[in-house]
Amino acid sequence: MKASTDFSKDFLTTLGGEQTARPTPYDWQKYQSPLSDRIDFKKVVHYQDSAVIYAYCTIESPTQRAVSAKIDFNEPLTVFLNGQSLEKQGRSDTMNLNLKKGKNHLILKMLATPQKDHFSFFLPQLDIRNRKHKYQIME
Fold it and tell me: What does the CA dihedral 112, 120, 122, 32 come to, rounded to 10 degrees?
């Protein structure tokens, strides 16, 4: 997570850039939210007006599949899945993710403000097991 307001800037250049970054716990601050359904940015990053914030996870899928993700965060938001930048369609809170078989890398880039100070991400209608920032789809 980076405290800055320049949303167009790629803050992950030292990790290969936003599209190819594969963060480790040594690269980023790991955070386990005490809330079951969201992360409150104010508890993680101290910022005045706004801050560019990244969230990272892996999603393990036993097969190639399209899934619907629910993301509770409006623009600006950029989603990177396996090196591809995905567009969120309007103000909808759902977006389609085309997962490959095996490990999928997901990075969310968000601009936090006092009005947008939390986010949530989940894959409804799927049986998911998770540990820390690693999610596994069960069949």
Answer: 100
